[in-house]
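Prompt: For my understanding, could you write out one protein's sequence and backbone structure tokens?
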Amino acid sequence: MLVPVTVLDIIDILLVALILFQLYRLIRGTSAFSIFIVVFLIYLFWLIVKALDMQLVSSLLGQVMGVGVIALIVVFQQEVRRFLLVIGNRYVQNTRLSLRRLFFSEAEEPGGIGIVEEIVKAAESMGQKKIGALIVISRQSRLGIYAETGEIIKAQIGAELLETIFFKNTPLHDGAVIIEDNLIFSARCLLPTTDQVIMSPHLGMRHRAAIGMSEQTDALVIVVSEETGSISVANSGELREDLKTNELRNILLMEKVW
């Protein structure tokens, strides 16, 4: 006898598929992916054992799964953090952006267009001259703990100043610039690197640091390659490479809440 399928069943299946897909996107290429596969297989085995009414094995695996939830939170703490940041970035902040646009036109949003143009101008110029750069733009997460690893500047954002900071002969060029509260808050900052195992071989430490920073915070990170001059942007643990000037401008206008 066929079991009737309701609309709620279809919604249930789609929600589970969406959650699994988001988890896959967050942990693909990391060492956590192998752990997730093993845990998933154990869970499937437990479901099969329960369906076959094998009480002893089912009870034993049930205890393991119960304790395993706590263990998974510990093991996947970075991935859980990234998942929550992704939800915040894509839904909460987009809602805030929509509400702001009810009261401000795009040109009236405080400092938005001018700051974007200065950052884009600096990235384009440094790309043409093959000056390596790493620019972190804060959103909701406060980046004070990372800013303290460098030199506090608190200067107005300008293309010339950004280019000067990253020029090879200056003492502040090594490290990242952090932009917070519409200011160049700090320079020569140390950033966490990603633990992703599978990455393109041409990506260097700047790109790994950019991805790592975007994994651990909701910051948007711009990378200018010293070798090729290409511009990339890291957001929520994902890297968009070889961006054109207009693409960078659109990302900053759409993703960043100024």
